[in-house]
């Protein structure tokens, strides 16, 4: 998943940076509250559809006392159809804006056909993909917030041979409902997030789903990894 790694971080440090991040994560988990440790273990144990490659990455350090991050790419052969990041935050003291002690923060993005990107209803549809993915797995959550951004790139001069490109980006966060022992079902939330990634990538649903959910039309083409 090297391409997704490069697009979501500055790419410096290579394997040394990844090794350092893993060592930091292990150290943080050694001192973390049991609820956070259990939530992270549930993320690691989640079973996901084979087209989605997931790996741990360096977590942000200043958003919460404890954090764990994953990066993912929807893969078709040597091509990435969509990519994203999911971050689990935990503040044992609680957070007023979250209305809970856990928070999930996400970034998802993919390229679009220009005609699709021009649809004025696209942001509303993309947000419904996120909420629909959570509801489709029966998850309870609170305080959702986020943005849906469309961006178009037009190339000039030495790059004029490149075709114009459009991209959709979904940034969102929500508070997962805490269950037994104050631990949210993070494995199910990860699975629902992967459902969103697959939908943005234009993959068919893994199982019969809600007919009201709109599937993304075929994009201009996969981005080479």
From TrEMBL:
<feature type="compositionally biased region" description="Basic and acidic residues">
    <location>
        <begin position="16"/>
        <end position="30"/>
    </location>
</feature>
<dbReference type="InterPro" id="IPR021555">
    <property type="entry name" value="DUF3000"/>
</dbReference>
<protein>
    <submittedName>
        <fullName>DUF3000 domain-containing protein</fullName>
    </submittedName>
</protein>
<feature type="region of interest" description="Disordered">
    <location>
        <begin position="1"/>
        <end position="33"/>
    </location>
</feature>
<dbReference type="Pfam" id="PF11452">
    <property type="entry name" value="DUF3000"/>
</dbReference>
């Amino acid at each position: 998943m090297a391409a997704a790694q490069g697009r979501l971080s500055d790419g410096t440090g290579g394997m040394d940076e990844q090794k350092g991040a893993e060592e930091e994560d292990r150290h943080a988990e050694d001192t973390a509250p049991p609820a956070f440790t259990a939530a992270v273990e549930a993320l690691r144990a989640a079973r996901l559809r084979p087209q989605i490659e997931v790996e741990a990455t360096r977590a942000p350090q200043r958003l919460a006392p404890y954090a764990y991050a994953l990066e993912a790419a929807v893969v078709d052969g040597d091509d990435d159809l969509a990519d994203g990041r999911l971050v689990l935050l935990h503040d044992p003291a609680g957070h007023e804006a979250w209305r809970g002690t856990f928070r999930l923060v996400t970034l998802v993005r993919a390229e679009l056909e220009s005609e699709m990107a021009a649809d004025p209803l696209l942001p509303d549809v993309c947000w419904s993909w996120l909420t629909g993915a959570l509801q489709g797995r029966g998850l309870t959550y609170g305080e959702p917030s986020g943005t849906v951004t469309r961006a178009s790139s037009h190339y000039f001069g030495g790059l004029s041979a490149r075709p114009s490109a459009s991209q959709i980006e979904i940034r969102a966060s929500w508070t997962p409902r805490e269950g037994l022992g104050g631990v949210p079902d993070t494995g199910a939330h990860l699975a629902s997030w992967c459902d969103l990634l697959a939908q943005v990538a234009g993959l068919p649903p893994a199982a019969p789903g809600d007919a009201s959910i709109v599937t993304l039309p075929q994009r201009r083409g996969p981005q080479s990894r």
